[in-house]
Each structure stands twice: as structure tokens, then as C-alpha cells.
Design goal:
Layout: E1 2-7, E2 30-38, H1 41-57, H2 62-82, E3 86-95, E4 98-107, H3 130-138, E5 141-147, E6 151-158, E7 170-175, E8 185-192, E9 195-203, H4 208-223, H5 229-239, E10 246-254, E11 259-265, E12 269-274, E13 282-286, E14 291-292, E15 296-297, E16 303-306, E17 312-316, H6 337-348, E18 355-361
Antiparallel strand pairs: 1-8, 2-3, 3-4, 4-6, 5-6, 7-18, 8-9, 9-10, 10-11, 11-16, 12-13, 12-17, 14-15, 17-18
Length: 363
């Protein structure tokens, strides 16, 4: 079993935190360090400084840190000048003994004509306007999606020079509610040879007590000895009784047999989205049971749903409105899971609650 991710506390202000080391019980593959509202040059500078601090603490060399800072500055300036503002998330990554930084830039501006039709390979630096081209030239990996009239999402990763890791097969993104610095929503992943096991936990309420509940749920998820979604939900339920409780959902993808196994308690939404025509038209909802992990639940049932090659499995908390439709975003389903998650969080997330989206692709 390979530990694949633990996305949790999203703290604003560029906190100087880094992923846990590889010998800790739950090595953090994705740690969200903060969201930054970019409305002018000064706020773009805050995101740049936070990214540079994170890069230094992750062990990037001085040249790489300067390149990271320059790329974030270009993204921030692009948001300010062309989109009328936007948001930047700074994330620390840990993979195969290496540490890196990931940046997510999101806006609701006019979009970039022609950009939606670009595949990841086709969206080269030369095709991206101004600062975007400069930013992706410096990055180890990039992806993005834009829709005229809806806005743009750009993601970049900075690893040590010469390191070009493949895309994560699954990843998530969280955002605290308006006015909060800590998110009570959390995602986690375990990668097995036969497919990933996914977790989304939504601690009741918001703030530190909600964060404690979702963090305890993730720790129970990683320490469990079973890979059955129903048994994992049961294990979490018994482990987090000391907290205020959480809505939780577990999905296990089994591409080799064409199914995803699912169990959940509470209001975590989940769906399998097929992409035979590239539009994400086929959507099968997965059903959670009423209850609150840690406090009240009936017998936890496990269900199986069909899963085809290239299908997406999407889980999200109730901080994301469940009326999204990937068919409204031509080509989005073929981009990296983070770009899909960021687009849904931007357009379907509500600011009055913590929000989390987790996306995995069957292979």
C-alpha cells in the first residue's frame, strides 16, 4: 500500500508549514498552505512571497525559489490585469522522497479564446498570453482550462530542477468558508496497485472543532487495516467519537474489474462521470446513508457502481452545490484532476461554508 495524499488544513496568510517527512505515520502528499485574493499588485505580491517562503522550506534551491516567485508574480499580475482579480492557492507536495510546490490560479474573468480546445501538450508557453507563458516556461508541470465568459484555471508545479513527475491520478482541493482561516473539510487518498481509495470528510460546523473532526477521520482512514469502504466508514465512526463528528465518504476504484465500491455517512456527494465523448455527459450518483460519523448511524452499506476506463470519480462536501455538469465545460474532463476540482470549486462552491472537491481518474 502506498500512501498517496492527505489534504486538509487550509490556512491563510502563507503559514510556514511543509509536508510531513516520509517516515511519519501519515506522510502528507498535498498540504494546502493558503488562499490569496488577488485584486491588485500588492495582493499579488503577498502570494508571491508566500510561495517563495514555502519553496525555501521545501528545500528548493535559491535559483528555483526565484523562478517560483517570478512565476507566481506573473500569474498574479495576469489575474489583476486581464481577469479583474482572482485567487491563488499555494500547496506543498511530497512525492517519492521529493518536495515541491503547487500553485492554483483561478479567476472568473473573460476567459481566453482558443484555450479550451488545447490539450495539455498543446497548451505550450508560446500559446499563452503574457505572464501565463512566462509562468509555465519556468514550471516543472502545468495544466489549465479556460472557457470564454466563465474564466480560467491554471495549475503549475515546481520541483527540483530536472524533476518532471507524472500527474497525480487523484487529488483534491479545499477552501475555508468566507472569514475563516481553517477548513473543516478534508480529503485523503491511498494508492494501491489495483486502484486508489478515496476519502472526503466534512467536520460538522466550521473552524477548529470541525477541522479536528475531519483530521481525526483522515487519521483513522490511514491507520485502518481494511480496504473495504463500509469497514473504513465503521472504523472512522468508532475512532472519532471524541469529536463533534463528520460526514464521511469512501470510494475504492477497481479499474481492473470495472467497478467503484462506495460507502458514506452524511451529505458527501459522489458521482461517476463517464467521458466517452469528451463532454462528461454520463453521470451516475453514488448514494450515502443518513447519519454522522462518530455519533449516529445505522448499518453502513456498501454499493458498487460501473466504472469504465477514463471515467472520473468525483466526491465533494456540501460546500459545493450538486448541480454542476461537466457537459457545460467542453474538454475539461480530459485535464488533470486538479484542474477539474478547481473549476468545480470555483463555479459550484459556496462561500458560506467550507468546501472540498476530490477528483480521481480511472485507468
Amino acid at each position: 500500500m502506498t500512501l498517496f495524499g492527505l489534504g486538509g488544513t487550509a490556512r491563510g496568510g502563507g503559514k510556514d508549514t511543509v509536508p510531513a517527512s516520509a517516515d511519519t505515520p501519515y506522510p502528507t502528499m498535498v498540504q494546502e498552505l493558503g488562499w490569496f485574493d488577488v485584486v491588485d499588485v500588492a495582493t499579488a505580491g503577498e502570494a508571491r512571497c508566500a510561495a517563495a517562503r514555502a519553496g525555501e522550506r521545501c528545500g528548493l534551491d535559491d535559483v528555483r525559489v526565484r523562478e517560483l516567485a517570478s512565476a507566481v508574480a506573473e500569474l498574479g499580475n495576469n489575474l489583476h490585469e486581464h481577469a479583474g482579480g482572482g485567487r491563488i492557492a499555494v500547496r506543498a507536495l511530497h512525492r517519492s522522497g521529493l518536495r515541491g510546490i503547487e500553485i492554483v490560479a483561478v479567476d472568473t474573468g473573460p476567459g481566453m479564446p482558443g484555450f479550451p480546445g488545447c490539450s495539455r501538450a498543446e497548451c505550450s508557453a508560446e500559446q499563452l498570453r503574457g505572464g501565463l507563458g512566462a509562468a509555465v516556461r519556468l514550471a516543472s508541470r502545468h495544466d489549465g482550462y479556460s472557457l470564454p465568459g466563465r474564466g480560467t484555471v491554471v495549475t503549475i508545479q515546481f520541483w527540483p530542477r530536472g524533476v518532471y513527475p507524472a500527474a497525480f491520478v487523484a487529488t483534491g482541493l479545499t477552501r475555508p468558508m468566507l472569514g475563516e482561516q481553517i477548513s473543516g473539510d478534508r480529503f485523503g487518498m491511498v494508492l494501491r496497485d489495483d486502484g486508489p481509495i478515496l476519502l472526503v470528510a466534512d467536520g460538522l460546523g466550521h473552524g477548529p472543532l470541525a477541522e479536528e473532526a475531519s483530521r481525526s477521520a483522515a487519521e483513522a482512514f490511514y491507520s485502518a487495516t481494511t480496504d473495504s469502504p463500509a469497514e473504513l466508514v465503521e472504523a472512522i465512526h468508532h475512532t472519532i467519537a471524541h469529536t463533534r463528528g463528520a460526514a464521511v465518504a469512501i470510494a475504492r476504484l477497481e479499474p481492473s474489474v470495472g467497478v467503484v465500491r462506495f460507502a458514506g455517512l452524511g451529505n458527501i456527494a459522489a458521482a461517476v462521470v463517464g467521458t466517452p465523448d469528451g463532454a462528461g455527459a454520463r453521470r451516475t450518483g453514488m448514494v450515502s446513508q443518513p447519519g454522522v460519523a462518530g455519533h449516529q448511524r445505522g448499518t453502513v452499506h456498501e454499493s458498487c457502481y460501473p466504472l469504465g476506463p477514463g471515467d472520473l470519480v468525483i466526491l465533494h462536501s456540501d460546500g459545493v452545490v450538486d448541480r454542476w455538469d461537466l457537459a457545460a465545460y467542453p474538454g475539461l474532463a480530459h485535464h488533470d484532476p486538479l484542474v477539474v476540482a478547481a473549476t468545480l470549486l470555483r463555479d459550484a462552491g459556496v462561500r458560506r461554508d467550507d468546501a472540498c472537491v476530490l477528483v480521481a481518474r480511472s485507468y
